[in-house]
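Quick one:
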Amino acid sequence: MEKFKTLTAIAAPLPQVNVDTDMIIPARFLKTIKRTGLGKSAFYAMRYDDKGEERPDFVLNKDAYRNAKILITGANFGCGSSREHAPWSLADFGIRCIIGPSFADIFHGNCFKNGILCITLPQDQVDKLSALAGSGNTAGGEFTIDLENETITGPDGSVTSFGVDAKRRENLLNGLDDIGLTLQQGDKIKAFEEKQNRDQPWLTV
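Output:
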């Protein structure tokens, strides 16, 4: 997993509340177990019309926000089913950080496991950052997310502090997902397997 230390990027305002995982990635795109290639289907019904043409009014279809790596969202983002494809699709699209007043628990955890930083802030602070992100037509400038110091620097130079669970912060800073954390225990796993093979050789296939 890619390490997350600092991120400087455009932020796209998406203030809609209760954006569920089916809105993030519709169920018909869940046939794959690969984490790549899902970005084109992220927010599918919001991005495309019935003919598959881009909806010009959706924020991520606008030139100013096509390369946004930060989303500023409404409350309860990621609610609905527990599908991990939701953060997979966002990561594949290029989203590395989501800022909002609240997130669904399972989605929130899945994001951290897939290299996406979720920042929870009071609604008034989210509103201020959303205003700095621009009108939804013209980007307001780049934000810098500093995970080591837990700060957001806006395009106007303002600084907003945030807090993240210490373990999740450490894992992101070091680029460790669940597999990476397990591999850190490689020597202990190998020692256990060798001892088990000696003590219980009948279990060896």
